[in-house]
């Protein structure tokens, strides 16, 4: 029994289809590789307002975000309910209380994907502030507070997946009555 050979055009068509699929897949891979890691979009640095922190005293901590040029993130109060807000969450050790978290206002900007409705976003340098209180019986010595910064970075055409970035606030605790020296006035007196 003879087997029929497939015409050359069939083999040619299958080859073209496979080449197109491979080309599309490599374009999608290149696009994915062109977008940076979401955690690399922001450089986050922590600061405290006083050194040392005396037992029983209120103080402030700040997380300053330097957002890469060409990127933005939604403010803490985004323009739309479906947008992911920027948040900073502290997990203080016993003896440290978070009294308040202060977020700056965003700025309204239009983007290619939202030409008619401006979005409330952060760009450039942004400070998120934690108002804290040290317990009068807080242990003396070095102390740290783990903080989680959550945001979704976008450029003018696409958004990256949301990301949680760990930040650590470090300071020294001194005995009650110790003189606390104001530090980082460029951060705490010149609010962003």
Task: Describe the model.
By secondary structure, this protein is α+β, with helices and mostly antiparallel strands. It has a single domain (37-188), classed as Thiol:disulfide interchange protein DsbD, N-terminal domain (Immunoglobulin-like, Sandwich), CATH 2.60.40.1250. It is built from 2 helices and 14 strands; from the N terminus they run H-E-E-E-E-E-E-E-E-E-E-E-E-E-E-H. It has helices spanning 8-34, 185-188; strands spanning 42-48, 50-51, 53-54, 58-67, 72-74, 87-90, 96-102, 107-111, 114-122, 125-134, 141-151, 153-154, 163-174, 181-182. A hairpin with a 2-residue loop joins strand 8 (107-111) and strand 9. The radius of gyration is 26 Å and the shape is elongated. 25% of the residues are buried.
Q: How is this structure best summarized?
A:
By secondary structure, the chain is of the alpha+beta class. It has helices spanning 8-34, 185-188; strands spanning 42-48, 50-51, 53-54, 58-67, 72-74, 87-90, 96-102, 107-111, 114-122, 125-134, 141-151, 153-154, 163-174, 181-182.
Number of helices: 2
What is the fourth-level CATH superfamily? Answer: Thiol:disulfide interchange protein DsbD, N-terminal domain
Terminal residue distance = 84 Å
The major β-sheet equals: 4 strands, antiparallel
Q: Give the % helix.
A: 10-25%
Integer-rounded radius of gyration? 26 Å
CATH class label: Mainly Beta
Q: Could you tell me the number of beta strands?
A: 14
Widest β-sheet, arrangement of strands? 1-4-10-7
Low-pLDDT regions = 24-33
Order of helices and strands: HEEEEEEEEEEEEEEH
| Overall average pLDDT | 86
């Amino acid at each position: 029994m003879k087997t029929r050979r497939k015409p050359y055009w069939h083999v040619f068509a299958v080859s073209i289809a496979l080449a197109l699929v491979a080309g599309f897949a490599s374009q999608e891979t290149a696009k994915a590789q062109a977008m940076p890691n979401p955690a690399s979009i922001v450089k986050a640095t922590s600061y405290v307002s006083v050194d040392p922190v005396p037992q029983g005293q209120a103080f402030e901590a700040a997380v300053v975000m330097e957002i890469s040029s060409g990127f933005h993130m939604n403010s803490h109060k985004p323009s739309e309910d479906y947008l992911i807000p920027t948040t900073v969450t502290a997990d203080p050790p016993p003896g440290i209380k978070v009294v308040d978290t202060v977020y700056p206002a965003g700025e309204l900007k239009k983007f290619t994907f939202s030409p008619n409705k401006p979005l409330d976003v952060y760009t450039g340098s942004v400070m998120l502030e934690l108002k804290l209180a040290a317990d009068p019986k807080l242990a003396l010595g070095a102390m740290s507070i783990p903080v989680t910064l959550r945001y979704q970075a976008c450029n003018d055409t696409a958004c990256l997946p949301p990301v949680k970035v760990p930040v650590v606030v470090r300071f020294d605790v001194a005995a009650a009555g110790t003189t606390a020296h104001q530090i980082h006035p460029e951060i705490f007196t010149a609010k962003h």
